[in-house]
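Slide 14.
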Amino acid sequence: MRTKDSATAPLPIAGTRLGAGLWLASLGVLTYSFTFPATVLALDGLDPYIIGVGRAAAASVLAALALLSVRARPPRRDQWAGFAVVIAGVIFGFPVLTTLALDRGASSAHSAVVIGLLPAATAVLGVLRAGERPSRAFWLAAAAGAACVTGFALIRGAGHVTAADLLLFAALVAAAAGYAEGARLTRAMPGWRVISWALVLAAPVTVPVTAWLLATTGPHWTGRAVLGFGYVAAFSAYLGFFAWYEGLARAGIARASQVQLAQPVMTLLWSGLFLAERIDATTALAAVAVLVCVALTQRTRVRHTPPLSREETGPHARRENVTTK
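Slide 15: predicted structure.
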């Protein structure tokens, strides 16, 4: 029996496409797991706003060159709203808020634990915005992962609400919105073009603001600052999204986002290796629990109810939204 864009029929994802999507999402998570340690390095000499906004300004140069090399067409007018959400969420919101949190005393490990709730937030927005309908088993596994992260935060003292915690919570909401909307846009164009256009469209703000900050904040370009800023500009702000958005689009927002449950554990590892932050037995136990929850989410089925949008129903829609069984 054949189904074509049915509003109620389950839309199975081909095994190879799902597997590739999960591998791409994992590569994106690995890239992002270095973001907090790199940001801590960049704070050794740079104002937090330079890091939060300047990384996008620097990445916009790479993005413009990439788009010019393929003579990419600008986004359609009906996609502008989606790009506005991506820009607000992952170009400005998450980078600025997390950098401010780290500057206000939150350690890299502490920040990683709080942001560990990001997969759950992304899955919820995937349901609301992208038409995904995870099964009950999926929600149970995802909730267990979120509970592990929350319990780990409480054990490590993250349950005490501080200004830094509030900034981190706002950052995870911003990132979840940007991830979900970026994945929807990736159904109509490659993921690298989504982040490239987002950076280029934001450049009229990020570039002059960065120039002003460089002129007024007195940055000190130490070796640590150069290394940290270089990483967040090239990888966290740009190249990581190549794999991440494509992985979300191929495997589904709700399912692929759960791979990110492993990110706090990896960030804790890098924090111990590169920043000499203390890693104890609690971290090892949390790592095992989180990875088990990630494995469980990959075994559950996700039903899709495709939203009525021009990305998926118009002439530019990708063929993978129509499947046969």
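Speaker note: Strands lie at 132-134, 302-304.
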